[in-house]
Amino acid sequence: MTEKGMVREIRGNLVIISPLKNETCFGCMNMECKNSGLISAENPNAIKIEKGQMVEVEARSISIFFEALIALLPPFLFLTLGFILTRIYFPEAGEGAAAFIGIILLFAAAFIIYIIRKKHPAKRIFLIKKSVLS
């Protein structure tokens, strides 16, 4: 995920950025900047930036990977677990019943993840990718 924004404050390696409101904000539903309207980013490559300058930031690929893994893996596992357990404990039940129980557990897992993420949003770590001429 890449976004552009204006540098508001520089605190050593930490940079506070005011993101531009564009189509990329829809991707995360403004979860990072919802409260203050600002996002924080690290500047590990020591790119020369100044207050008021436009920069391009991106979320770390590993954090995006783990967010996707946490969102997608449990529902898949619950679906599989529901199907297998139904076949083990109720061998006379058909595949339709096993699939139905699996789908119920899939939605249950998705709902649980939704509730957890609503209360404890993922912490994205943004990195300054490059300086943009304004």
Query: What's the level 1 CATH class of the largest domain?
Result: Mainly Beta
Separation of the first and last Cα atoms: 21 Å
Our count of domains comes out at 2
Fourth-tier CATH superfamily name of the largest domain: Nucleic acid-binding proteins
Extract low-pLDDT stretches: none
What would you say about this model in short?
The protein is of the alpha+beta class. The protein is built from three helices and five strands, in the order ββαββααβ. The protein folds into two domains: 72 residues, Nucleic acid-binding proteins (OB fold (Dihydrolipoamide Acetyltransferase, E2P)), CATH 2.40.50.140; 56 residues, no CATH class.
Topology:
Elements: E1 2-11, E2 14-19, H1 25-28, E3 39-42, E4 54-59, H2 61-89, H3 95-119, E5 126-132
Parallel strand pairs: 3-5
Antiparallel strand pairs: 1-2, 1-4, 2-3, 4-5
Helix pairs in contact: 2-3
